[in-house]
């Protein structure tokens, strides 16, 4: 049986754990499964209510039936599949080995404190990935080089604005505008200019929120799923606005 203070500490850990997963781009059902799995290893029953911005966690001690509730705002973290995988593995390790709370905190802190990928490395990887999209859509080598350069500039602007915590809708509009403006230089060359301009903004497409929104709706978390889909579609609209501004400035006939 857990004492009231122990129950409070368990709730605090589970809330921190679920917040990290939810804010890092994990679909709702997985967050609930992982959190409840850790709860079972600590002999508590966990009930959760998840929304896009807030989370409510209720922890009930199985023996005493004492309940502790806590509410928290879900922060936004960078999407990291590696982090999500390691946190999911931690839930299985806790369940299989019945790890105590102190050990769970130590392992959790080690996971989230691991060094992230260097922003410069991320910048070039995104550039190569977007140039590959250009190749998939039939762009020639000149167009690929232009898209690579446009992506570097657009993504760097995005990184700088995100560090300054500028509104993310404005970030997407400006990043799309910058990348497509650079890519529009292809119009002065004999190359696949239309493909270069169209693919220069693909690095901004919010694939993870779109996918999570569909998964949430399919698995019954309709409210969270619809919210995620709406936010993702708004980001797609911002991309379209930035690209449309370039087309109107450079070559209105493409609209």
Automatic annotation (TrEMBL):
Topological relation to the membrane, as annotated: Multi-pass membrane protein
GO biological process, one term: succinate transport
Keywords: Cell membrane, Membrane, Transmembrane, Transmembrane helix
Coiled-coil regions listed: none
Molecular function, one GO term: transmembrane transporter activity
Domain annotation Threonine/serine exporter-like N-terminal: ranges: 12-249
Residue spans crossing the bilayer: 117-135, 141-157, 169-189, 195-218, 230-250
Protein known as: Uncharacterized membrane protein YjjP, DUF1212 family
Species for this entry: Bacteroides stercorirosoris
């Amino acid at each position: 049986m857990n004492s009231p203070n122990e129950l409070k500490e368990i709730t605090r850990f589970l809330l921190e754990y679920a917040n990290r997963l939810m804010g890092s781009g994990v679909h709702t059902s997985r967050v609930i499964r992982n959190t409840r799995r850790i709860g079972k290893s600590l002999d508590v029953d966990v009930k959760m209510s998840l929304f896009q911005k807030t989370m409510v966690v209720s922890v009930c001690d199985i023996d005493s039936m004492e309940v502790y509730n806590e509410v928290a705002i879900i922060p936004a973290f960078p999407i990291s599949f590696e982090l999500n995988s390691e946190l999911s593995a931690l839930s299985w390790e806790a369940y299989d080995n019945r790890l105590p709370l102190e050990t769970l905190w130590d392992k959790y802190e080690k996971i989230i404190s691991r060094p992230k990928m260097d922003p410069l490395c991320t910048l070039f990887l995104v550039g190569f990935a977007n140039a590959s999209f250009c190749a998939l859509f039939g762009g020639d080598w000149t167009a690929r080089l232009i898209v690579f350069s446009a992506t570097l500039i657009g993504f760097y602007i995005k990184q700088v604005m995100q560090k300054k915590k500028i509104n993310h809708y404005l970030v997407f509009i400006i990043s799309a505008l910058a990348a497509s403006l650079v890519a529009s230089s292809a119009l002065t060359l004999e190359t696949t200019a239309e493909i270069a301009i169209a693919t220069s903004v693909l690095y901004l497409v919010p694939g993870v929120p779109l996918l999570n929104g569909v998964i949430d709706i399919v698995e019954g978390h309709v409210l969270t799923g619809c919210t995620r889909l709406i936010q993702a579609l708004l980001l797609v609209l911002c991309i379209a606005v930035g690209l449309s501004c370039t087309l109107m400035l450079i070559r209105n006939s493409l609209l």
